[in-house]
Amino acid sequence: MNAWIEAPHRPATPAAGSVPIVYAVPTKGGSLLKFWCPFCERFHLHGRPTGDMVRHRVAHCAGNDASPFADTGYVLVEVAPHDPRLTPPPRGRRPTRHSGRS
After folding, report:
1. In a domain, 76, yes or no
2. Mean pLDDT for each consecutive 10-residue tract of the chain (102 residues)?
3. pTM
4. In the chain, count of helices (H) and strands (E)?
5. Farthest-apart Cα atoms in the chain, separation
6. Residue closest to 68 by CA, chosen among 8, 17, 26
């Protein structure tokens, strides 16, 4: 696995054949993980894995062919809410509805 979202707020281009690592935080209820997708400009939600499991996820970038996640999916890594590796929503913009399924 190659982490290609390296700099905060700015995704880099993935290398051929790589699967991006995306950093996500638990939701308030704790059963889901969420992250801000810079391509869809909305939150994506996924079921939270049990234990220390890290799994490949199918992207929720439905209908967004411009998102590289649509082709590769991603691996979610849980981090603390103030982790600098998180991609936050843009300031001054209210996030649109999330896209996600458990």
Report:
1. yes
2. 36 60 91 89 86 76 79 87 88 54 42
3. 0.69
4. 1, 6
5. 37
6. 17
Instruction: Give a yes or no: residue 41 inside a domain.
Output: yes
Residue 25 lies in a domain: yes
**DSSP character string of 5-67:** --BTTB--PPPTT---EEEEEE-TTSSEEEEEETTTTEEEEEEPPSTT---EE----TT-TT-
Measured between alpha carbons, how far is 18 from 8 in angstroms, rounded to an integer? 19
76 is in which domain, residue-wise? Answer: 21-83
Q: Which of 37, 42, 26 is nearest to 81 (CA)?
A: 26
SS3 78: strand
Contacts of 26 (CB under 8 A, 6+ apart): 32, 33, 34, 48, 78
Residue with tokens 């979202």: 5
